[in-house]
Amino acid sequence: MVGIDAKNKHTLDSTYICSVCSLILLEPVQLINCGHRQCQSCLDTQHETSITCRQCQLKTSRNEVLRDRGFKTDMTTLFIECSFCQWTGVLNNYPEHLDESHSNTKCEYCDEEFNSIHQFNEHQVFVCQKRTVDCKLKDFGCDEKIGRDKMHEHYLTEHHQNVTTNVIRQMLSKLNDSEVDNRFSQVTTVRDCTRVKAQLEELYEVVNMLSDAIQTLNNDQQYLSTESLRSQVTLPKLMEELSKIKISVEESNTFLEGMRCNQEVLNQDFASLQEKVNDLQCVSYDGTSLWKIADVKKKMIDAQSERQTSIYSPPFYSSPTGYKTRARLYLNGDGNARRTHMSLFFVLMRSVNDPILTFPFSYKVTFCLYDQTPAQRHIIDSFRPDTKSSSFQRPRSDMNIASGIPNFFPLEMIQKEENPYVRDDTMFIKIMVDFEDMQKTLLPYALTLNPGLPTHVQQSMIKQEAEQRYQQKPPD
C-alpha cells in the first residue's frame, strides 16, 4: 500500500483506489463477480472463504479472485505527489523515493516509527489505536470521528444507539416493502437477486455491529459483577475494621472523659494553690490584717442568692510563732441578722505552733470598716472571747466555729448608692487582736492612723497619745 494525500485522492480516478484501505492500489487483485479491485495485503487480512466487496457488497469466492498484473502495469505510469514532501512523479518511481527519503516514517497519532512505508500504511489503516476514524454507521447519520481505542465507548453512546435503531427500522421497512419472501420465489434475473443479497449483507453488517456492542456490554457487566463480588468480599473486612475503629473511639472517649475529670481536679487544685499564694502575699505577723474586698456587688448578689453566703479573709498571725486567725464575713447576714445586717466573725485556725501556745484564746478582737472619704467615719466594734466557748479552744480541725458580731453593719446603709464604705466596688476591713488591752477611748485614734505606717511606728504613736491623755487627766 502506498500512502497518498487528499490532493492525490481528488485528482486520481477512483478506479486506482483500494476499496478497503482507501489508498493507491498495491499489488491489485480483482473480484470476478463485481470487477472491483483491492490491494493484495487488504485481501490477506480477510480470512473468510468468500470476500465481500466494500463498494457493492457482492460476495466473491476466494478462488475467483485474480491478480491483475495488466492493471498494475498501467498504474505505474500514474502521475502522483508525495504524501510527505513536495516530490512529484510517476507511481513506478514512488516506492524508490519513499525508501530513500522516508525510510523512518513516524506515525503522527502515536509517534511510533517504521522502517518502511508499507509497515507505516498498514499500521495507520489497521493497527493504530490513536488514529481517528469514522463510525461504521457514518452513511446512516452517525458522523462522529472516534479514536480506535474509544470505539467501544462510542458504541454505547445514546446517539450511536439511536442511529443503530433507525438503521434496523429502515432495513426492516425496506424488506417489508419489497416483500422479500415473495421476491425470492419470483427472482428471474441475477440483478434482482444481487440487490436483495446486498440489502441482507447490509443488515448482516449492522447486526454484527450490534453484536459487538452487546459484547462490550457483556464485558462491562462481567467487570461490574467481578467488582461487586470483590466488594462483597471486602465489605465484611471493612465492617470489622469499622467495628474496631468504633471500639477505639469509645476507648478514646472514655480516656478523654477521665482526662477531663482529672483536668477539673487539677483546675480545682490550682485554684486552691492560687488562693493560698494570694493569701501568703497578704499574710501579716503582728495580730492585725487589712482585708481588701473587691467585686462587692457580685459577692453581695451571691450571698443573697445563697450561692456563696460567706467569704473568708486571708489568714494572719499574732506573731511569727503565734496564733493563726482569719475573719469570716456574711454580706447578707447570718442567723437572726440575716437580710438586716452584715455579720462579721473571728476564726481561730489550727497551726503548727499550737502545742506551745496558751488556750483558750482570750484577747480582745476589734473590727473596723473603713470610711474611704476624708471624713473617716469608720465603723468600729469589738468583742472579748468567751473562754468557755469551743470557738476559742485549741483547734482540732482546720478551723474552729466562727464567733464575733452578728449585727456588725446595717445592710440598708451598705446598699445605698455613693455610701462612703464602698468605692470602686471595693471595701476595706481591718481586724486587730489587742494584746495590750488598749483603752476603748484610744481605739478611734488608733484606727485613724495611716495604715501605711510601719506597725512599730503606729504602736509608738498610740503610746504617746495614751501618755498625753493621762497627763491631761485632772487629779482625783
Description:
One of its GO terms (biological process) is regulation of apoptotic process. It is a single chain. With 476 residues, the protein is an alpha+beta fold. Helix content is 42%, strand content 18%. The protein contains 13 helices and 20 strands. The strands form seven sheets. Strands 13, 14, 15, 16 and 19 form a five-stranded antiparallel β-sheet that branches. Strands 12-20-17-18 form a four-stranded antiparallel β-sheet. Strands 2-1-5 form a three-stranded antiparallel β-sheet. A hairpin with a 6-residue loop joins strand 6 and strand 7 (88-90). Helix 7 (158-177) packs antiparallel against helix 9 (190-282). It is rod-shaped, with a radius of gyration of 59 Å.
> What structural category characterises the helix and strand content?
alpha+beta
Q: Identify the overall geometry.
A: rod-shaped
Helix count equals: 13
The portion of residues forming beta strands comes to 15-25%
Query: How far apart are the first and last residues' alpha carbons, in Å?
Result: 155 Å
The CATH topology of the domain at 283-447 is given as Apoptosis, Tumor Necrosis Factor Receptor Associated Protein 2, Chain A
**What fraction, in percent, of the residue positions are helical?**
40-55%
Estimate the mean pLDDT confidence: 81
CATH H-level superfamily of the domain at 283-447: Apoptosis, Tumor Necrosis Factor Receptor Associated Protein 2, Chain A
Architecture (CATH level 2) name of the domain at 283-447: Sandwich
Unreliable runs? 1-10
Top CATH class of the domain at 283-447: Mainly Beta
Domain MATH: 286-433
Organism: Rotaria socialis
GO molecular function, one term: tumor necrosis factor receptor binding
Pfam families: TRAF-mep_MATH (PF21355)
